Amino acid sequence: MSVAENSHLVEVHCHILEGIDDGAKSKEESIALLLAERDQGVERIVFTPHFYAHRERSVNSFLKKRQKAFDEIKDESPIKNMHLAAEVAIESEISELPDIEKLAIEGTNLILLELPYRPFENWMAEEIYNISIKFGLEVILAHPHRYCDTYTDDQMDKVLSLCSYWQINNEAFGNWKESRFVKKLMKRDVSKVLFATDAHRITFRKPNWDLLKKKCKPEIIEESMRTIESHFKAK
What is the pLDDT of residues 76-112, one digit of tens each? Predict the structure, then answer.
């Protein structure tokens, strides 16, 4: 049995909480997704529902919605090591939003940020920098491979250089162009690469650790998992 098959996986990006965003639509679907994660080796999971500042009344109102969704499934979850966080959309002046630091991954100083799907502008990089410096947080950039057709090499390099980690969706290894981009990232600095599923539904965009295990060397997967775990242990 390979190292990857034996590995204890950590999920740091998923949309499994019921009814809070475009992820799971029912408690039953949430549990089914958690079972799929567990069966593929996940032992620690971080719930990261989308946070869009322009849609929310406040961070605290979002936290109440998130807690309610979590309470629905926490007792029945087959994975017991669970943490709350958010996938925070980078918007203009997001770093000035009160309580934004409360969206970091519980028990760590990590925060998952998502770039907007639009051409690069300098304010995006400024917001990443401001969040990092102002709150002493280490930024995980969600799925940078999705922007490789939108950003120039210089723009991408500027963004990547501001982030502590680059979160790669496992599905990237099923796309030739995205896979090529990810391999370049791993050559650049494999220690900054973190794998996750970005799972949304049980019928599509479902947990796909099996794909990662087929396409990526076991030692690289192990390094990613150790890096994530080190932040929880540090706390």
Answer: 999 999 999 999 999 999 999 999 999 999 999 999 9
Task: Determine the pLDDT at residue 147.
Answer: 95
Is 110:137 a contact under the CB 8 Å cutoff? Answer: yes
Q: Which residues of 215-224 are buried (b: 16+ CB within 10 A; e: fewer)?
A: ebeeeebbbb
The domain covering 3-234 belongs, at the CATH homologous superfamily level, to: Metal-dependent hydrolases (3.20.20.140)
One DSSP character per residue, 68-132 reads: HHHHHHTTT-S--EEEE--EEEP-TTGGGSTTGGGGSPTTSSEEEEE--SS---HHHHHHHHHHH
Q: What is the pLDDT of residues 36-82, one digit of tens each?
A: 999 999 999 999 999 999 999 999 999 999 999 999 999 999 999 99
CB 187, CB 217: distance < 8 Å: no
Say how far apart CA 7 and CA 225 lie, in whole Å.
8
Give the number of other Cβ atoms within 10 Å of residue 93's Cβ: 11
First to last CA, the chain: 32
Whether the per-residue pLDDT at 21 is higher than 70: the answer is yes
pTM: 0.95
Residue 95 has which token pair? 């770093």
Can you tell me whether residue 9 is helix, strand or coil? strand
CA-CA distance, 187 to 38, in Å (whole number)?
A: 30
The residues spanned by each domain of the chain are 3-234
Looking at residue 235, its pLDDT comes to: 53
